[in-house]
From TrEMBL, chains A, B:
It is found in: Cytoplasm. It comes from Pseudoclavibacter chungangensis. It catalyses: tRNA(Pro) + L-proline + ATP = L-prolyl-tRNA(Pro) + AMP + diphosphate. One of its GO terms (cellular component) is cytosol. The lineage of its organism: Bacteria, Bacillati, Actinomycetota, Actinomycetes, Micrococcales. This is Proline--tRNA ligase. Homodimer. Transmembrane segments: none annotated. Keywords: Aminoacyl-tRNA synthetase, ATP-binding, Cytoplasm, Ligase, Nucleotide-binding, Protein biosynthesis.
Length: 592, 592
């Protein structure tokens, strides 16, 4: 196949698009691969579509290799099935909704668990029909609050979603393992580095889930890695509780005046000045306890106010708090929320006051109280005393106050202990490139998918769900593989295998270019031929670098002597050669 | 590629689905190709997806052959661009609409003229960039009032839509011709009979348009064919006006009592009884003039009341009326409409009364009047006299009454004259399988797509748009090619090239089947292998006939002797053969 730049529908741009935050977005637009249609919604031009097809082909091959069968569902589905599973509420505004002319409620499907479950229920009825894994490669829609970074977080995106159906847990383990293996092969073939982390199941529900994270600075996720190699999404990081402390030597809580201490730092300085420690050491932020008043909202819109205490030297991580509270949305309480509370003195909130417990089950305020999981029993704290301009010190956990429970609430930092005891962790940024879930029986139960087992008894099917974002992965390949002059595609997904550039005066370069294009084509290469006349060598080379085809064969000045240059886009190396040797040279040096 | 029926995700059904009106719908569901998700919305199972891919591949090849380049647009687009082109109003309820979380209005694109126009405007600026034809194969959405017949009129369907961009009319003619040729090749390869008819451009706008109709009893369209081969959509049929008649011998109009004449038949009988013709011949329905009070509604919802007169021996064809009135929707006036009219006596409406003209420019009612185009000047009519229980005869067109204009309003019947004078036409049912439009400058003007011409002058680009319904064509292939036992796929689009059926006692049939499956696979055939154990030969053969793979190789009773039967699904012929000859036999007898 030969495509000619003189007719190819492409226009390379000199300028970066104004809204591009990341390299992949910038370069895919500038090189004429994609074009924005609406926020987070793109059209695919011929170059982009070629790369997308190659990524899809890799995904499809690896799915087929593990016996998954391809189907294709509509993007528009009845809202009813999402109502039945509870996801209509879980997704909330993120799900695009519409009604048809008869008023029937529809959604643009964000994923298809419900529809696949119902289809299998519709057609299958026996354990003999299982195991089954079916998948589709399809456009999905999510009305993200903040679409960003081009294809990395779009509102329309192409995804491979697979669903497994098994009669028992052992079967699910096997289906899950097969998909997990396929994912590892997919990312290796795409040349995308990855770590597999224990993940939060989010709106998907279910029991076990792992995320494939691609480490990248442009990522939205943070994950932790232990010296042992153990990795986890930061939302799933489990902190190590401090060893219980013997507080018998600590005196009773002491309330002290604390005017003008709006921050932890001012509070610590003030405490060191007015209530110095008995042992002569200084109070630090680590001795203070911050109490955050949070509103938790569930899918049905039910709002609960709780207070969460974290050590004063750490920020709270609301994403971790949300996971700790079963996926409820967490946000700081509003003025309106505060008006409804009594017994809490804003700015001086703590679990205790001179009159006794304030927060938690026995507290006077009636507001539930949770403490960060890392805090040790018997530890003593400086915290609010629930009086205007008053704090307390020597307030001992377990002696003076008791929370309703422990939660993972504090931010995770480099050097924190790893849950597997292998030493200090490090944190890194990454982006999800794949996600595998053991859904278990959640959807099958909600939608009534049962089959007869070997004893003729109806049993609920157990399911898995497995997603790879095709377009996001494509963008990450571009992100991981570019330089300041343009894209540098790996052979596996490049839009063309080779680009032939004819440039120079007279007919020779163009005749030689034509001959070379045909020669590569005949050898099974996909060829982009820059046959444009009246375009300067500089523009041609610049376009070639921007477009990023791995091998560029230049029929230039020495065409009349039958000589060309072969240009390796990745290394930048240019090798002068007799034209007859170009094909053999590229064949010998290809990386894929 | 070998797929095994023991694991293939398919369930053949004994019963027809309750909602299936046509054979393709019935059989595609029963044989496990598709499954309904909502009215007019289907999921594609593995068998169906395979056929769909093959149809798409044919379309893609023929597009590429004529130089069209593939792109891919989102299904969700901003409503704004459809507002700019006027199509938001034109499509009305047929366009699915939604809003995002920020209230931005979006649509599910019914076709993509606007987005393609804007993309070319965005990237191209010179005549040197043209001509350009770009296409996509993509899922479209239309909220049909009456989705029907399975895939034949769905609310979600896959379509190939192509758009051409040219600097001048000659270029458009060429681009249009190339697409038209490609369409002829596509339908020939699909084995779908077609006629090309002059068509109404409908909501698409533009100047010239032709429709590819596939003649079929399940079609929704009627078209006419002349002895010369000329064919037209019935909406575009142009009637031949009768020769002007010398009415000088006809006396003045005569009003007569006409109680109890609710129908044309009763009116004619009554007229023959009370006001016999002077020449002794009988009045017939052809002497009466029916006046229909119609409400015309445009895209903006503007409603106009008009009266349309057609000969009493013909029904009015409201689809033809709609085209005649520039695509406005036509429906019988409602009681509410009538309340607003004055001077028209319902049941006795005519253009004239004893007091003078009633309808048309000079009429006392002020209601516009249009007459069917076939009616001859000077013809005399029996029609309503605008008085309760009174009609008039000898009312002469041009002498006693004058319409505001002529329209194509009467139904078209077999035997009507062909517009090209080649003799009587015949009418037939068909379904649109492709449509080519010369849009001209309508969209380019509305959206400002101009490029510099050779003289450096900005000129508006001229466009064409070209659509083929992939899923509808697939259904029509099934419709045209089945028998009472199941589908009979032509080689070009069959889900598999050959089906190997192992059946019988012992291991031999299964071992031989396995060997044959591998042999066909190695020879490049796509193989479906019925390797199911404990399934009776009857069920296996029934499933094979239902699924409709063109060649079925049966490894049965004589497997131990190395003998098989090759079964031609189309003719039903079974040929016993040594197993070693099966491949050669199928190769020699394939039709594609």
């Amino acid at each position: 196949m030969i495509e000619r730049l003189s007719t190819l529908f492409v226009r390379t741009l000199r300028e970066d698009p104004g809204d591009a935050e990341v390299a992949s977005h910038r370069l895919l637009v500038r090189a004429g691969y994609i074009r924005r249609q609406a926020p987070g919604i793109f059209a695919w031009l011929p170059l982009g579509l070629r790369v997308k097809r190659r990524v899809e082909a890799i995904v499809r091959e690896e799915m087929t290799r593990v016996g998954a069968q391809e189907v294709s569902f509509p993007g528009v589905l009845p809202a009813e099935m999402y109502e039945a599973s509870g996801r209509l509420a879980d997704y909330g505004d993120t799900m695009f909704r519409l009604a048809d002319r008869k008023g029937a409620e529809l959604v643009l499907a964000p994923t298809h668990e419900e529809a696949f479950t119902l289809l299998v229920k519709d057609l299958y009825s026996s354990y003999k029909d299982l195991p089954l894994t079916i998948f589709q490669i399809q456009d999905k829609y999510r009305d993200e609050a903040r679409p960003r970074a081009g294809l990395l977080r779009g509102r329309e995106f192409t995804m491979k979603d697979a669903y497994s159906f098994d009669i028992d847990d052992a079967g699910l383990d096997e289906s899950y393992g097969a998909q997990r293996d396929a994912y590892e092969r997919i990312f290796r073939r795409l040349g995308l580095e990855y770590v597999i982390v224990a993940a939060d199941a989010g709106a998907m529900g279910g029991s076990k889930s792992e995320e494939f994270l691609h480490p990248t600075e442009v990522g939205e996720d943070t994950f932790v890695v232990a010296p042992s190699g153990y990795a986890a999404n930061v939302e799933r990081y489990v902190s190590t509780p401090g060893e219980p402390i013997d507080a018998s030597g600590i005196g009773a809580p002491v309330v002290f005046d604390s005017p003008d201490t709006p921050t932890i730092d001012t509070l610590v300085a003030h405490a060191n000045a007015v209530v110095p420690r008995a042992d002569g050491a200084a109070w630090t932020a680590a001795h203070t306890l911050k109490n955050l008043v949070l509103a938790l909202t569930d899918g049905a819109g039910e709002r609960e106010i709780v207070v969460v205490g974290v050590p004063g030297d750490r920020a709270a991580d609301l994403k971790r708090v949300e996971v700790a509270f079963g996926g409820r949305e967490a946000e700081p309480a509003t003025d309106e929320d505060f008006e409804k509370l009594s017994g809490l003195v804003r700015g001086y909130i703590g679990p205790w006051s001179a009159d006794g417990p304030v927060l938690g089950a026995d507290g006077s305020s009636g507001v539930p109280y949770y403490l960060d999981a890392s805090i040790a029993e018997g530890s003593a704290w400086i915290t609010g005393a629930n009086e205007h301009e008053k704090h307390v010190h020597s307030l001992v956990l377990g002696r003076d106050f008791t929370p309703d429970g422990r939660v993972e609430a504090a931010e995770v930092l480099d050097g924190d202990p790893s849950p597997d005891g292998s030493g200090p962790i490090r944190t890194a940024r990454g982006t999800e490139i794949g996600h595998v879930f053991q859904l278990g029986r959640k959807y099958a139960e909600a939608l009534g998918l049962k089959v007869l087992d070997q004893n003729g008894k109806l049993v609920t099917v157990t399911m898995g769900s497995y997603g790879v974002g095709v377009t996001r992965n494509l963008a990450l390949v571009a992100e991981a593989s570019h330089d300041e002059r343009g894209l540098v595609w790996p052979e596996a997904v490049a839009p063309f295998d080779v680009q032939v550039v004819a440039t120079g005066k007279g007919a020779e370069p163009f005749e030689l270019g034509e001959r070379l294009a045909n020669e590569f084509d005949a050898a099974g290469f996909e060829v982009l031929f820059d046959d444009r006349v009246k375009v300067s060598p500089g523009v041609k080379f610049g376009d070639a670098e921007l477009i990023g085809v791995p091998w560029i064969v230049i029929a230039g000045k020495e065409s009349a002597d039958g000589r060309v240059e072969v240009w390796d886009r990745r290394t930048g190396e240019r090798t002068p050669l007799p034209a007859d040797e170009a094909l053999a040279f590229v064949r010998a040096n290809r990386r894929g």
